[in-house]
Design a protein that fits this description.
Layout (H helix, E strand, L loop, with lengths): L1 H10 L2 H31 L11
């Protein structure tokens, strides 16, 4: 997103600045979701088990 912010600053466009903030917030939310699910699966031990085999 730094490129988008630099572009917005150069053009004095608040729309690009707002878009950069929103997109960064979405990216941060995705990272946090992934980290939380990985930590939860790791705590349960499910992440270290082999995949189930078909009967």
């Amino acid at each position: 997103m730094p490129g988008r912010r630099a572009h917005a600053a150069r053009l004095h466009a608040t729309l690009f600045t707002a878009a950069a903030v929103v997109l960064y917030a979405l990216l941060l939310g995705a990272w946090l979701t992934f980290a939380a699910r990985t930590a939860r699966a790791s705590a349960r031990g499910a992440i270290f088990l082999p995949p189930p085999t078909a009967p």
